[in-house]
Amino acid sequence: MLLLLLSILPLITADNDTFTPQELDMIEQIAPPEADFYFMNQKLFEDLMSNYKKELSPYYTNHHVNPLPSNWYHPPPMATQVVLTYARIVKMDQVEQVMRVIAEFRMIWHDYRLKWNESDYGGIKHMYVNRASVWTPEITVANSESATDAVPEHKQNAIFCTTTVCLRTTKNFPFDKQECPLCLVETFFNKNESKVYAGISPDINYNISGNGEWDLTSLKTFRKTLPDYHMVEFDLMCFLFTLKRKSNFYVMVIIIPTFIITALTITGIFGKRMSGDDFIGELSLGLTSLMTMTVMLGIVADSLPKTDHLPVLSVFLTIDVSLMAISVLLVIIHPRILYPQMKKIKSRVFKPKEDEEENGKCFFGLLPKSMKAYMTANLFFMLIFQAINFGSLYYILSFWNWSLLQLIGIVFPSASIVHRRSSSVMRSLLFSLIFFIPSSDGESTIHPGHPEWASDSEMENYRDAPMDDNQTKLLVEFHEHNGNLFQDLMRTYHKELSPYYTNYHRPLEHGQVHPPPMRTSATLTWFRIVKLDQVEQVMKIIAELRLIWTDHRLAWNPADYGGIQHIYFTRNSIWVPELTVGDSEMASDVAPDYKQNVLVKYTGHVLHYFNVVSHSVCPLVTSNFPFDRQECEFVLIEILFNKNESAIDVQFAERLNFARAGNGEWDILGGHINRTTVADYENVEFDLMRFVFSMKRKSNFYVMVIIVPTFIITTLSITGVFAKRLSGEDFIGELSLGLTSLMTLTVMLGIVADSLPKTNSLPVLSIFLTVEVTLTALSVLVVILHPRGCLARIRSAICKKHMGANLVFMLVFQAINLANLWYILSFWWME
């Protein structure tokens, strides 16, 4: 029935005479009310669209017209309500520090050009049109890498997918909570012209809004007021996503296995009495465990930005690595140094019998007699190290929703209360007193100067501000003048044609001068470094630019149009300077043309803000990696237009904050502008405008995760190889030890190799690792090649008495190892 009605409706509305009386009676019998509705609905749409300009904004801009007649007031700003009705977290990129989210908004605004008298159209009170038919508010996502509609413009849904900047703190990783704002902005529409209200639908289901790694725990809104270049205020409306990481994966896959490996290693090292003769087995066990720990460090390194703040997981792994290293060191040092000294103390204080003089009892005599039967020196060390290991585990699990503690709280309620009260204190004590590292319960990711929260009543009780008859009259007159102005401007305007004056070759009469080149001002008002790919040598940057130019074809006399001095319409209605990003792999606007407006003044000056994402080429000098400083360029170019026709002025905005433009791995120290003049194939000169950013790498991650563990492993390897006298016969144990250390160091080399381009200039970190590998390899080679007693012929009598050949080699190699560490850390200290 409906298909039949739709097929005959155009014939009904076009010409009723084409039907016979019998056919008309049949149509009226089928659906006379529906037929009348479709006719009226079509007539209403045609009447509304006859003089409607969707490119023209409905904002009242005549607030400057004063004085008004007595008891007359300007219309209030046009109110727009934006309600978040659906949200889904797609991805949280921890390295680039961006959040990708799918969001659905419900927008309500009042366009007085779309009003009608319902009695004139059969009582129709509302109608549906697609979004492309009407003007829509230019509400875009701020601080965003991309914001694209999930459906085409001709659909009525307002679902889009955006990748927005989310600066996060990784201090409590993987038990962290993050606050990521999704901010909406109407650029350069000031608060007298437009007012945006943000709200959150109560129907949002938080249980399905997260993803596999993150839970969405809450949503809030806040407003922040910003000034533009002429200090006119406009609002930034933000939805604050509070996210909690699902940490069970890290607990079960990294933390628990690491704790078990460390516990088994400590037990294996100290489980055998320290005889001072055979320690190669324990040393190999420790270094094998260290190699396993470097794999764990590599997993964490791939998941996090290289920030200065080490997360608690990295600290936990570093503590376990240190425990293993110290335990291995004690295996070597204790029997040879401490044991003879403790033996003397024991004989003086306790006077033990000769049958008690056994290896491994150096601390035994210092303990109470009741404990002599239960503890030896190795057990004493084991208990201390296992206690520290368990304390480290307890500390990191205190950030987790530990089910064991919850079980204890159910069985023993008082214990639960004690745990809740002492949890924070215990974390501080364990970290501050035992590990000598300052503790913190976390910090907010919201930047300083947090704005006030918007009130719930303001969101829920949104309504248009009431207007009296005089205000309505002013608004109707304004829309009439505004529409006439736009129509007159566009009547002979061709947006495909540039306004550049190109007749400089024409000879002039005496006294005449050619017009100056058309000037365009390009100001970098905001930017953010998203990522610096060191292998591809590409900088990914989000930048907001403000363009100001003069198009004399858009000038008018305000007196002819009710005093209107400026007007807003969409960017695709007029010509825009061909200012593109040069030396870039890819550059694209964040928002499409129909979502971008321009402000045009009666003088012909045009103001336009737009955001661009660029993958700009940035050649890196990696010789000082990871203590390097780089300079990367964001290049603007206007091709074809020579310097006689066009002039570009570029500058940084005065309110631009370089300190907050970096990311987790890079700090922005400052910037400057370079201008380069080049010539095309016809020797026509044009300029390249370069925004140059000075950046400094945050190097603490590399020091704590790569340099220090590598130094410890090399130190232990050299000590283990040379701690036993070189007999020239039994070197298999030392050889296995050295090869295990080399395997561990290759893991470190792999972490560094994945982060760097394969250039001819080796960075200092690669040189450091190469020296460490060489020292380990040479120490093993010396064990094999050094003949028995080769140093005995050249050593003095004093050296023969106090030092063996192994100690000579050990001191030489350790001195080189320490000098290598001092060299690379000198770059760190000079930062």
From TrEMBL:
Keywords: Membrane, Transmembrane, Transmembrane helix. Signal peptide: none annotated. The keyword 4Fe-4S does not apply. Pfam families: Neur_chan_LBD (PF02931). Gene3D superfamilies: Neurotransmitter-gated ion-channel ligand-binding domain, Neurotransmitter-gated ion-channel transmembrane domain. This is Lgc-29. It is found in: Membrane. One of its GO terms (cellular component) is plasma membrane. The lineage of its organism: Eukaryota, Metazoa, Ecdysozoa, Nematoda, Chromadorea. Its main location: membrane. It comes from the Eukaryota. It is a multi-pass membrane protein. GO terms for molecular function: excitatory extracellular ligand-gated monoatomic ion channel activity; transmembrane signaling receptor activity; transmitter-gated monoatomic ion channel activity involved in regulation of postsynaptic membrane potential. GO terms for biological process: chemical synaptic transmission; monoatomic ion transmembrane transport; regulation of membrane potential.
